[in-house]
## 1
Amino acid sequence: MRRYLLAFLAICSLSAVADDNWKPFPYEQSAFDYSGDKLRQAWPQLTRGFGANYPFPDADWVVTMATTYPKALEMTVTGNTGFTGKPEEAEIYASKLQEVWRLMFRGDFAEAKKQGLALGVGGQIPAMFAQVVYATFLVPNQEEKHHLLEEVIDYTDKAGSLVQADTVAMFGRIYAKARLGEELPVPVVLKRGYTSQIPKELDALLAKQPQQPFALALYGGYEAGVIRKVGKLVGKMTYGVSADKMETYFARSFKGSDNLPIGHYEYANALSYVYGDDEEQKAIEHLKRAVAIKPINAMEALEIAHAKQLLKQYEQKLAQN
């Protein structure tokens, strides 16, 4: 599946640049040091949300991609990346690509985007994933946030059906649409086709990686979000969503990995959207589970901080009753 990555990325524009005014990561980063061999050793845990066996971008992977996709190699060479396709250069290129992932996991999002794009077609997956995380959690201005998320979608639009070649690319695209769908007016969401695109793209992703925890939690959140906006009856009749399906997706996500903060706070939100105050205690329980997780990368630290805010709101509400 991943072997099509360079071909997919070759279609994408390299026009985006990392803004110098991106906010820095607001928390301590020392625990997210994956220098040297630490990255490979921690890779299965760092990428557990992507599903099992997400490939490590080492020199063997680079050589395979360059050999399999000569057009992608040509674009990498002409992109002034310093890689000409020689096997002896693969280790250097792979080390640079690994550094982009280190930057993303550490929370140096602007630098991850900058260095990722500088690698040409090979570095755009971690670069754009860094942008999705940054936009979701660190951009206070809604217009800017939407612009950054729309830019990620635009990159994958240019790739067409080849976006389906990589599960992280697929998830990043859907996640951007889901976050936009939560905040944009319903008529805009309908006009853009997100209500049909999100489940269709999630189905395609889960067909390739049936137990990807991120995708399953996002699907559960989508079901709940539709119910929140249009109600259970209209949601079921028009969009095919239901509380039972929401519960099933989250149960599958937790079975795949129950130590992802995003899964627990997304479920807490979903419980509120679908059941209101009836499942308040269950929502609080899952928020407490989220904040009890020790983050192993910057994204998880941001997710836990978000869960703490939600938990505080619940506790304040209970105190007032």
Note: The CA atoms of residues 36 and 94 lie 12 Å apart.
## 2
Amino acid sequence: MLKVINTTDSGAKEKLNKILNRSSFDNEGQMEAVQNIWDDVKDNGDQAIFKYTAKFDGAELDESTLEVQEEEIAAAYEKVDEEFISALQTSIANVEDFHQKQLREDWMDIKEDGVIVGQKFSALEKVGLYVPGGRAAYPSSVVMNGVPAQVAGVDEISMVSPPAADGSMNPYTLVAAAEVGVDTIYKVGGAQAVAGLSLGTNTMMQVDKIVGPGNIYVTLAKKLAFGYVDIDMLAGPSEILVLADETANPRYVAADMLSQAEHDPMASSVLVTTSKEVALEVKEELKQQLKELSREEIAAEALENYGSLIVAQDLTEAIKVTNQFAPEHLEVKVDDPFAILGKLRNAGAIFLGEYAAEPIGDYVAGPNHVLPTGGSARFYSPLNIDDFIKKSSVISYSKEGLEKVKDDAIKIAEVEGLDAHANSVKVRFE
């Protein structure tokens, strides 16, 4: 079980570095396998898609069964309960409301001399959503990736997700896709799905951007895809950091740490606190609550490998450690969380107060749960409307407006040795 360590201990920095470096995207063996799949899809299209789906998922598909049909969606509705549909609709409504507030309008700055500059916003035409499958259903991933695309005005939304061995799709995932308004669903996952969306095949539509998390093979395939299409980010294993003082409730803290530890053996759950007593109490709570989990082994392995209980000298140092870690999920369990909000620079999502439990952000709060991991919150943002929108600059000049700046433009062009650039301006005044 976890040891309580102080920031002054010799192993504290090494422990944090181990956690942050746990999701390297430079594994040569895995990258080689992904490259081979990519090349096969590029050369052989659908046949490669079918081959790898049979190999990795056990599903034998062809051109007539790769795409989910309307009758399959109708059958999925018969398999899910009304309470799930109601909960799903609440989630969709809240996510839609949050992302609507991010929309921006075109603007123009019109000057007296006839010069006009501005910005035009246009939605992407085609977007692909990757939704994990396999061991569990993730309808929330459909919501979090699909709703912002819809709000942004994307014309065509395709979704890929691994099928079961019998070729069926998880009914909860299918219902979520229908409720969100996904246009096309393909029964394919893994690196081959990313390649199919990036390159296009006879059956799969090429998209402009791919969003959504997956395993290391999906992530490496998205790395290859960048340039053919855009991607949202390279997502690693889940993580949570709880920043706490002596007022924190150890039972709540432990429960929230376990909410991420149960995801994956590589998930990370970290407590940074100013109170050694709280750290010790959280340690005991983790022991007790682990016994109640159906995914006890996974959570225990995650805690053992990538969990940590760190005691800082004071709140200032605790905040410094938190910003260095730049967590995907940051919970702030201190006496006055809003008082330090301005000091928290690096985090994907920030949960303030003892009742802001991380899973609420995953499902129903409204903000997106597709978040930067592995320290990338230092420079990445959560998935948002801007991920589905392009910006175009607008420029219009009158002769009067151009005459005011022509000499400056010509001078810079000549310094750069670009005579044609300079001449493009000169000819308008000859």
Note: The two ends are 81 Å apart (CA to CA).
## 3
Amino acid sequence: MSDAAGDDAIRFDVTDGLARITLSRPHRLNAVDPVAIERWRDLAEEVANREDVGAVLLDAAGRAFCAGGDLRAMSELAGETDASGRTITRLADVIHEGHRHLRESAKPIVAAVQGPVAGGGLGFMLVADVIVASDAATFSSRYSDAGLTPDCGVSWLLPEAVGARRALELVLTSRTLTAAEALDWGLVTEVVAADRLPSRAEEVARGWLAGATGAFGQAKRLVRAAAGRPFAVSLDDEALTIGQAFDTPDAQARIAAFTSR
């Protein structure tokens, strides 16, 4: 059912405030199996709650970023139970729990996308706040190829990124976007040459850590939370958050430097 231990399926490291999460099943185009799914949820919760993490870099091993769920592994697991559909629902819920932890955290996330992204891989990618793609990356849905429907937050995250009309085109057709098209659609933040991808993504993350790290994290949280609540609630949250930020030593030092100019 699983051909990789959890630590091998998704590698994880925290160095100098930067958490690096690496999808690492390149032989399966980094499609997640049940073991990887559980680890994804656990790592996401850990990252969201760790005080020593100021930024997150999400990347992947091999030629693809992520092909979504490993249908072969999930079919094998479902075949061992009397309730195969409920088994798949449970696995989807575990992935979604991990997505919520990262999405709702006050930790800015950059994704480095080096190759094909398909199906639920779109959801893994779109959990990030900044997406840097290689010029060799491609993007497609492919759910209907397997007679399945979107998961991994794709039905919400994709229209948020590109609008409902374009999201429907991706999930209802076999269209595959090039990196240039994905940039034009607003699906990714920027496109770089393949050999520049790792350094550029790390540059983004290190920039957050070198700057007002806490302010970047809270700005991400405020923007992400806004879509799901009334305007007045966001205004109250903004007022409270900027007041708390104003009193931090970091802000006081930066304000002093700014006003002195």
Note: The beta strands are 10-15, 18-23, 55-60, 109-113, 117-118, 130-134, 138-140, 176-178, 190-192.
